[in-house]
Amino acid sequence: MPAALDRRSFVKGGAASVAAMALGTTALASLAGCGPKQEKAPDAEKPAPQVEAYDIVIVGAGGAGLAAALAAKQGGVAKVLLLEKGIGSGGNTNFSSSGMNASETRFQVKDKIEDTNELFAEDTFKGGHELGERTLVDFMCSNSSAAIDWLDEAGITLDNITQMGGASVKRCHRPTDGSAIGKTLIPGLRDAVEREGVETLVETPATELVVDANGAVTGVKAQTKDGAETTFEAKAVIIAAGGFGSNKEMLRKYRPEVADFVTTNIPYTTGDGMIMAQKAGAELVLMEQVQTHPTVEQTTGALIAEGIRGGGAILINSEGKRFFNEMETRDAVSEAELEQPGKYAYVVYDQQVYESNLDAVSYDERGLSVKAPTLAELASKIKVDTAALEEAVATYNAVTTDGATDPFGRTKGLIAFGSGPFYACKIAPGIHYCMGGIRIDEQSRALDAKGKPIAGLYAAGESTGGLHGSNRLGGNGVCDTMVFGPNAAEQAALYIAKSA
Ligand SMILES: Cc1cc2nc3c(=O)[nH]c(=O)nc-3n(C[C@H](O)[C@H](O)[C@H](O)COP(=O)(O)OP(=O)(O)OC[C@H]3O[C@@H](n4cnc5c(N)ncnc54)[C@H](O)[C@@H]3O)c2cc1C
To answer: Angle at which helices 476-499 and 134-142 pack, to 10 degrees?
Structure first.
């Protein structure tokens, strides 16, 4: 995917060009010549309802869905179908900007980073204010290293490790060149599922789960591109339809105080999977837990990656002053920003940060950052007090070089500012991630309110709730999808084998 593809062009760009970037070759061929979505045929001409049969149908072809599809095929499942509502696969995961957390990986060992699965689990649990489902937390962390190896075998190498907020050590794994993970992960997974013969239907929103008289899920109804209502029979269904960060109605219902914030999410993340699963008997948990990300550009909803702060950037307010530990968890940093004059801040960094985070180049190209050769000129361009900005950088540099105690308690990602040019991105909090969703167990089974699994129904990724408690740590979203996506597929395959 070309670096120039950003969330905005995905949302607003022409279907054909975006599809060309977001789809693999097979799916692309099927899109040839397709422009904006055609008006639906009048009812009289509506194609007759269809029925097709699969082993596993996966709702949503984002990170979790693609990973589940690949694992299902690798596990010997014959007929796997990915249903995707959008014009291309990849979902929000396309735009994952930093990386994937994992512990005890061989890449950490190579970089002499000491980490354990227990420490990762502790950070995750604490980061979620101890509201997370501990068994899910432990499961994710202890399987994270295997997920990194699994991706590596699929040609997706994540060996460049950075620091994220709330993490005791560096464990956020990125592509070798330090670029945004989504741009490597999604094309890599998309190619792998194509090679394995997974069928993908884009512009085919799932609308309803089919439930039999015993309460078991046996299929999915969807609206195919030609307007036909098709029932896809399935021996098992995996919901991987992402969160509801673009559904104002659900946001108003569950977390009204942030409903009018800008969102970093693509427009397709409207909670459909959660709604469908709930109708089939699944319990939804922690729905009020909607994460705001503290560094969102407000006119575009573009995310300024947390890896920028992890790589040494600071936050300053409209007076040019630092005001908080930049490496604190997202909820805490968002709250601190909203207490600043004007309720916004700037992410400020130097050329070293720029060069070690390829995303920073795209901020420059997209006009999201302001650049100046000196701090004084930067201050003048963004209209903050020059002396205050210089003082903020000098105090921060003293912490990194003299070992002075940081007045805001920052101990991670401390890298001194070098010489210019310097950069600033104006940001404020935006809706970013839904910690709530379908209740699952370690076998990725969807559970009802009594904790009983719903036969034939599995869920993975942002559609699920409980793992991240009340705050997801940066880097844990992708880890969640790469551990629980394949896990859902393996468990669904076992269920199919047992039911045969
Ligand atoms: C801008 C941005 C940057 C991020 N950066 C990071 C990062 O660096 N590290 C990290 O760990 N996490 C990051 N995250 C979070 C991470 O991207 C998510 O945790 C992850 O993408 C969730 O994957 P998913 O597969 O569950 O959902 P998605 O990738 O969103 O996929 C869900 C898919 O389901 C489809 N869908 C929805 N409804 C239907 C329906 N009815 N029928 C069929 N299909 C449907 C959607 O179109 C979408 O393609 C970031 C998120 C955003 C928005």
So the answer is: 100
Q: Is 330 labeled as catalytic in the residue annotation? A: yes
In the reported structure, the alpha carbon of residue 245 is separated from the centroid of ligand 1 by a whole-number distance in angstroms of 10
Close Cβ partners of 423 (under 8 Å, ≥ 6 residues apart): 348, 349, 350, 353, 354, 360, 363, 364, 369, 370, 371, 378
Q: By C-alpha distance, which of 425, 239, 219 is closest to 316?
A: 425
- Binned at pLDDT 50, 70 and 90, residue 49 comes out as confident
Q: Which of 330, 410, 445, 472 is catalytic?
A: 330
Residue 50 tokens, joined: 């269809």
CA of 215 to the centre of ligand 1 (A): 28
Kindly state if the Cβ of 147 falls inside 6 Å of ligand 1. Answer: no
Residues β-bridged to residue 418: none
Domains of the chain: 1-27+43-289+435-500 (3.50.50.60), 292-431 (3.90.700.10)
For 213-229, the pLDDT digits (tens) are 999 999 999 999 988 89
Residue for token pair 């740590």: 473
Neighbours of 389 (CB within 10 A): 26
Residue whose structure tokens are 């008997």: 281
> Cβ(205) to ligand 1 under 6 A?
yes
Ligand 1 pocket check for 99: Cβ under 6 Å: yes
85 Cβ below 6 A of ligand 1: yes
Q: Does ligand 1 have an atom closer than 6 angstroms to the CB of 124?
A: no
CB of 151 within 6 A of ligand 1: the answer is no
**Higher per-residue pLDDT: 361 or 23:** 361
**Atom 15 of ligand 1: nearest residue by CA position:** 477
Cα of 243 to ligand 1 centre, how many Å? 7
CA distance 86 to 31: 12
CB atoms within 10 A of CB 388: 16
Pair 481, 461: CB distance under 8 Å: yes
What are the pLDDT digits (tens) for 131-149? 999 999 999 999 999 999 9
Specify the DSSP element, H or E, that contains 173.
strand 172-174
Ligand 1 atom nearest to CA at 271 = 38
Q: What is the mean pLDDT of residues 330-349?
A: 96
E strand intervals along 178-266: 199-201, 206-211, 217-223, 229-239
Residue found under tokens 């299902």: 72
